[in-house]
Amino acid sequence: MEPSVIALLASAGGIVVLLIFVYVTFLLCPAAYLRAYNWYQRRKLGLVTRFSHSGSYRFCYFTSATPAGNTPSLLLLHGFSATKDMWLPLIKYLPKNQHVVAMDMPGHGGTARTVDDNYSIECQVTRVHQFVQSIGLDKSPFHLVGTSMGGNVAGVYAARYPTYLSNVTLICPAGLVYPKDSEFVTLLKELEGSQNKDSIPLIPTTVQEYENMMRLCFHKSLNLPRPVLRGLLSERIPNNGFYKEVFMELIHEESRHSLQENLNLITTPLLVIWGKEDKLLDVSGTTVVQAVLPNCRVELLDNCGHSVSMERPRKAAKLIMDFMSVGEVNNLDVKKHS
After folding, report:
1. CB 286 within 8 A of CB 293
2. Average pLDDT over residues 120-149
3. Which of 38, 219, 225, 326 lies most in the core, judged by the most C-beta atoms within 10 Å?
4. pLDDT (0 to 100) of residue 320
């Protein structure tokens, strides 16, 4: 047999062995592959993971590009039990030169989790402002975007620190008094009166519970392979005690309606984006915001649930950038007439 043929067969055999190894390893340790996938996506998008400090408290975030001219920076706040990686699908559709910062919220991801920390909305707002100052984002007005829990935090931040902001975008925000109960809220009320009252649908402990959570968060089923589901679940379970602590803070009377109680204090131009099929926080929340802030812009997305940044990332990115552009034009007009 020709040496070249032998070499070809050996090479092909090596590739087969490698593929088998990858597949078997994926089945045994899917979480490692999921972490590697997120790392690859960050690298592909030019995002760099960094840390900053406020006193002894550590924040973890990733960023891309640098602040440029009159275009505001974007600060992204994720939702409950997520991490900054949830924004990757949306960031893919932002302009390459857009300065983006996505932080891990207090206690989440790589941001510090201390035994004496308070995760109420007000305390999270304080932490976010510490982060803003720690990386110098307070040097010029920036665009703040928050989703779900992060939307609650972003709204209250806008009420507390309006001079630091150019625009605010709230995506399916928590913290309102919703005219209509969502499927999630109805389920919580049912669990309160049952033997499973300590069960929280957003804190799964089994693959089936994880699938149920995904069904609440997404309009269309993702149909993920079982190994992937096990990997995602294995990443969450060690944090379940922390997630329960945060969840109890969020539903406490101090935080439950934080956004509602601060809406009238928001003076920054506001965009609200909501999935029409949101089963977690009902879309009727938009009417509550509009009743207090009639000049806000509201965009309702068809065929979309709670996870807007993953279900409709291209559309959400366009809406955010269009809203920023309108703000830039208005700012230029103000400067011309001043």
Report:
1. no
2. 97
3. 219
4. 98
Q: Which of 134, 148, 258, 309 is catalytic?
A: 148
Alpha-carbon gap, residue 334 to 148, rounded angstroms: 33
Q: Is 278 a known active-site residue?
A: yes
Choosing from 85, 104, 278, 282, the catalytic residue is 278
Task: State residue 27's pLDDT score.
Answer: 56
Average pLDDT, the chain: 88
Instruction: Look up 78 and say whether it is catalytic.
Output: no
Given the residues 78, 108, 219, 306, the one annotated as active site: 306
Let me know if 99 is a catalytic residue.
Answer: no
Closest C-alpha to 308, from 111, 93, 64: 93
The one-letter code for the residue type at 84 is: K
Q: Which two tokens stand for residue 238?
A: 């060690």
- pLDDT value for 68: 76
Prediction pTM value: 0.89
Contacts by residues 35-40 (CB-CB < 8 Å, ≥ 24 positions apart) = 35/235, 38/85, 38/88
- Assign 281 to helix, strand or coil: coil
Count the Cβ atoms, other than its own, within 10 Å of residue 79.
28
Least confident window among 175-189, 192-206, 235-249: 192-206
pLDDT at 296: 98
Residue with tokens 């275009």: 71
Rounded to whole angstroms, the Cα distance separating 227 from 23 reads 11
State the DSSP code for 73.
Answer: P
Across 7-11, 55-59, 284-288, least confident range: 7-11
Q: What is the DSSP letter of 201?
A: T
